[in-house]
Amino acid sequence: MPILRNRIVSVCLLLLLATGTQADFAVDLDSGDLLEVYEFGGEHDGPLFLWLVNQYGELVTPNALIETLASRGATVWRTDLLDSLLLQRSSEAIRSLDGGPVAALLDAAVDSGRGPIVLVTCDRMAVPLLRGLHEWRKRGGDSATVAGGILFFPNLYRGTPVAGEQPELLGIVDATNMPLAILQPALGANRDRLTEVLDALHDAGSPAYGWLVDQVRDYYLLYSEEPTNRALESSAGIMPPEVRSAIADTPNQLLMATQLLARTPRPDAVLPLDEAAEQPIAPAYGLIERQPRPAPDYDLVDARGSRHALDESLGRVTLVNFWATWCPPCVHEIPSMNRLAGAYDEDEFAIVSINFREEPEHILEFMREVDVDFPVLMDEDGAVSRDWGVFAFPSSFLLDRDGRIRYTVNTAIEWDTDEVREVIDRLRSEDRYTGLPHRPVAQGPAATIEGR
């Protein structure tokens, strides 16, 4: 067991203010910092979970899960990398973390003699978890002593790409060959990318497993009546029954996944890490002009039951906006979109919003609280969002009269600005729609079949 060491007074005060308790012990890091660890169920002989606190610092539901695991014979070491290293709770800080702290934690876990040892985390913290596994192996860690990692809705991407472009996985994915289990919410934003992540891990030699968690969205493990971080506003309030059920089943999933990982063979080789692929991509803000290309089709029913197709937009400039009610930035930009729509004749400009994986009844209830002056189309299975290459919410696409994508936005903006209106007016002033197809028409037999 690592020896508990006192930190300087100011750091101790920060810790006490943040958690109300003092860490059970600390792990020395090569940087001279200390990684504070809280131990639960230390008297047990069951598995040892190394629980990396999420980037938001939300502890209510995770602590309840940890206590349940401890009551069922497991030991849990909970540590907050960002808090221990005095880093901001931001995506940039997480992507900058190397594998050293987690590697040191793994060394301490192996020295404790407990096991099987499993790392656990969610969302963006999956990146330092995988880097830590890789660094620990590179330093000579025996893969037979660690079962692997369990990742809930992991975000393993280099950043948010320009809207409509496919995201790139970080280099650590291609350098990971330890056993992993991924639990992906069935209604999550990256649900349809689970296969891509698993394929990349399998190609690297990782015996990775994936499960879908029914009826819940990302961040369900962080649900709280009063979250400590404003970014989790959409996961606040009275816990829905489906979330409560999924959380209640999580300890079972963790224990079963641990048994599976512990029985899974581990490779001996340590894979090289492509440092260039570890670099985050530069964020793109505001309206981004694109090479004109045909917009993917859609044919969807709106929340009130009317059907809409992309062809309705031909002949006018159209803003296609992908969003969800659980996305605060999406909701924030609705008033400015209403004002923008009201500034133009509907024959010249229109807004079409496409809602991601929610139900019409929920949207109608939302629209009784929030004015939405344009149709809300229901993409209940996420297929249209996938076809358009939507990665982040909101994502918006500005189409010209011929239905071609001319500009994209991958974040919320104020839409009724002079800059946006200048772009729309420029597209309106281009040659009018001639009635020609905005997408290539199949030739030969296929065109004949379609023409019947």
From TrEMBL:
Entry keyword Isomerase: yes
InterPro entries reported in the protein's UniProt record: AhpC/TSA (IPR000866), Thioredoxin-like_sf (IPR036249), Thioredoxin_CS (IPR017937), Thioredoxin_domain (IPR013766), Thioredoxin_ResA/DsbE_sf (IPR050553)
Alphabetically ordered keywords of this record: Isomerase, Redox-active center, Signal
Gene3D superfamilies per the UniProt record, alphabetical: Glutaredoxin (3.40.30.10)
Q: Name one Pfam family in it.
A: AhpC-TSA
Domain Thioredoxin, residue spans: 289-429
Q: Which domain of life is it from?
A: Bacteria
Name the PROSITE patterns for this protein. THIOREDOXIN_1, THIOREDOXIN_2
Q: Can you name one GO molecular function term for this protein?
A: disulfide oxidoreductase activity
Q: Give the residues annotated as coiled coil.
A: none
Secretion signal, residue range per the UniProt entry: 1-23
Listed name of the protein: Thiol-disulfide isomerase
Its taxonomic placement starts with: Bacteria, Pseudomonadati, Pseudomonadota, Gammaproteobacteria, Chromatiales
